[in-house]
């Protein structure tokens, strides 16, 4: 097996470039000495120095995540319709118009069932998202990106640290987009850092933050004074309706983000391997 004249990495017969350093492989003159040992490339944050190796496909993880997100769209639409129905009932109660105890109990039961389903789906989707996102970020050194800004562990941890979770997950998503460009050369070095990201990522993150703020308000209000009066309950109902409405475009944008990043990584990996 031949060796790269630049770094000493083994190169399969017929390959046009070195997978380790991106050096173009041409015909070497007879008698060209082979380096005694491969040179280890500069360390990449969070990598095990197997630059150009170790890519793990993310298509399977993405597929499971996309299914969960798709279900989330339908469940958010159902929740929105249920909230509007409850809002109409609360309006009649506030105005002193006719309503029955059975109607109110049925509304409470329906809302409780939908809320439980949303909670289960939210936890499931969060787990699937973290599995996909962490693998997508860990793949970047294998795709030729050098000098990552964050260690791979932050692909999970950054979502749980207060205040940091407002900015770092987005920064890591941006880096994943930049470093997975299928049109980039095999060895990207640090050049990937200057690439622009698709505006879809900005819109997705903006809606994600707004949804989080609304969710926090609803959660705190449910256990506070808002749940003690009919007007307070109506306010929570309105906030929940707005949240469920915004969740639909948020999930659609999340689906686009997952699909695009997955396609970019898979396409680039096929070109390299």
Structure description:
The chain has six helices and two strands, in the order ββαααααα. The protein is mainly α and 273 residues long. The longest helix has 43 residues. The chain folds into two domains: 39 residues, no CATH class; 214 residues, no CATH class. About 10% of the residues have low confidence. The protein has a two-stranded antiparallel sheet. The relative contact order is 0.13.
Most strands sheet: 2 strands, antiparallel
**How many strand segments?**
2
Low-confidence stretches: 27-52
Q: Assign an overall shape.
A: elongated
Give the % helix: 55-70%
Give the rounded overall mean pLDDT: 84
Structural class: mainly alpha
Residue fraction in strands: under 5%
Compute the CA-based radius of gyration. Answer: 26 Å
What is the domain total for the residues?
2
Order of helical and strand elements: EEHHHHHH
Count the helices. How many? 6
The strand line-up of the biggest sheet is 1-2
Distance between the termini: 17 Å
Descriptors:
single chain; 273 residues; two-stranded antiparallel ribbon; elongated
Give the SSE map:
Layout: E1 2-3, E2 10-11, H1 59-95, H2 101-138, H3 154-157, H4 168-179, H5 199-222, H6 230-272
Antiparallel strand pairs: 1-2
């Amino acid at each position: 097996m031949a060796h790269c004249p630049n770094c000493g990495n083994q190169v399969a017969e017929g390959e046009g470039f070195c997978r380790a350093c991106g050096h173009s492989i041409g015909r070497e003159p007879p008698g060209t000495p082979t380096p005694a040992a491969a040179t280890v490339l500069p360390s990449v944050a969070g990598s095990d120095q197997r630059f150009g190796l170790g890519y793990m496909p993310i298509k399977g993880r993405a597929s499971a995540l996309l299914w969960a997100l798709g279900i989330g769209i339908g469940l958010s639409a159902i929740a929105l319709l249920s909230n509007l129905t409850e809002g109409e009932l609360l309006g009649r109660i506030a105005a002193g118009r006719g309503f029955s105890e059975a109607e109110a109990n049925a509304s409470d039961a329906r809302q409780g069932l939908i809320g439980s389903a949303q909670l289960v789906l939210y936890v499931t989707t969060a787990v699937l998202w973290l599995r996909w996102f962490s693998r997508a970020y860990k793949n970047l050194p294998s795709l030729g990106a050098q000098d990552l800004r964050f260690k791979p562990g932050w692909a999970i941890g950054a979502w749980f640290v207060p205040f940091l979770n407002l900015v770092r997950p987005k920064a890591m998503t941006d880096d994943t987009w930049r470093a997975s460009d299928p049109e980039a050369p095999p060895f990207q070095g640090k050049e990937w850092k200057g690439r622009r990201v698709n505006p879809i990522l900005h819109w997705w993150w903006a809606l994600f933050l707004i949804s989080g703020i609304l969710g926090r308000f609803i959660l705190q209000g449910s256990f506070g004074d808002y749940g003690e009066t009919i007007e307070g309950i109506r306010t929570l109902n309105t906030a929940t309706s707005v949240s469920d409405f915004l969740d639909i475009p948020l999930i659609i944008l999340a689906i686009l983000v997952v699909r695009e990043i997955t396609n970019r990584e898979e396409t680039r990996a096929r070109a390299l391997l």
